[in-house]
Amino acid sequence: MQLTTASQIPVELQKRFSTAQRVLVLTGAGISAESGVPTFRGGGNSAVWKGLPFDVISSAQMVKRDLPAVWEWFDYRRGILKSLAPNAAHKAIVGWQNKFSEFTLVTQNVDGLHQYAGATDVIEMHGSIWRARCISCHTTFEIPRNDRRQEDCASCGDHLRPDVVLFGEMLPTGAFERAAEAAAKCELCFVIGTSALVYPAASLPEIAKTNGAFLCEVNPERTPLSDLCDVVLTGKAGELLDLIELSELKS
Ligand code: OAD
Fold first, then answer.
1. Distance from residue 195's CA to the centre of ligand 1 (Å)
2. Which class is 10-37+86-126+170-250 in CATH?
3. Where do the structural domains in the chain lie, given as residue ranges?
4. What is the pLDDT of residue 44?
5. What pTM, to 2 d.p., does this model score?
6. What is the set of active-site residues?
């Protein structure tokens, strides 16, 4: 059923949202869909770039085989992002930062839209498309929104690569550990706009649930996590997060 009013938000979620102290939000590509960012999967589609599936062009092997092609794909994606803005869902989450005494935002997204909206201390599980990293000395460099990116490392002169986690690579040191610790402690966990297929990010809601958290999924489609969730809100994040907030004011 498509929810259109705050009174349709399940009462148990309204209560949890009103009383929880420790809240964790895990987001994926779907939260940026209403900003115009294409998702990787979903709706029966899977992203392809110049005939290469996204998990081939975004892979550790491709960095070794053809770094310019990897940059071309990421330059293309940054080019799209330049003109896009955060949507109602990103903005709602910024408001949640100060509402709960312990709030943790974990994203699989590399698009930087949470921070653009004003989110702070975001755990970026998969890095950022707005940073480059030296393949030798690992120094990172911000990529300006409105300027060309650097070609080579200003510290050692070697090649730069996108500072994102590619298929076949480890997560940034500490990111998962920090997120898992918050997941184990949270009372309320939202899983928003992710197909929940990529691990270990998808294990965070499982950790939360195992430790007694109330789990709420927000997604227009069902995912492998749906059955584990206490509440599944079927629809768009940009519409539903506002309804959750309104429902709390009413209760
Ligand atoms: P996916 O593209 O796999 O999934 C996007 C999810 O968002 C799907 O379940 C959609 O149904 C849902 N969705 C679409 N529109 C939505 C909306 N308006 N509101 C809420 N949900 C919506 O994206 P991720 O799960 O983020 O890794 O993918 C995980 C990782 O796979 C990504 O971080 C990326 C990719 O490989 C890297 O780039 C390293």
1. 5
2. alpha beta
3. 10-37+86-126+170-250, 47-83+134-164
4. 64
5. 0.94
6. 126
Which stretches in the chain have pLDDT values below 50? 251
pLDDT score at 251: 47
Checking DSSP bridges between strand 231-234 and strand 214-219, what pairing results, if any? parallel
Instruction: Quote the ligand 1 centre to 113 CA distance (angstroms).
Output: 14
How far, CA to CA in Å, does 188 sit from each of 18, 37, 72, 227, 247?
A: 11, 27, 40, 16, 16
The minimum-distance atom of ligand 1 relative to the CA of 29 is 26
For residue range 98-131, what is the model confidence (pLDDT) as tens digits? 999 999 999 999 999 999 999 999 999 999 999 9
Ligand 1 pocket member 77 (CB < 6 A): no
CA nearest to 102, candidates 216, 213, 200: 213
- Both tokens of 8, joined, read 């349709």
User: How crowded is the C-beta side of 25, counted as CA atoms within 13 Å?
Assistant: 28
Is 74's C-beta closer than 6 angstroms to any atom of ligand 1? no
Q: What is the distance in A from the centroid of ligand 1 to the CA of 115?
A: 18
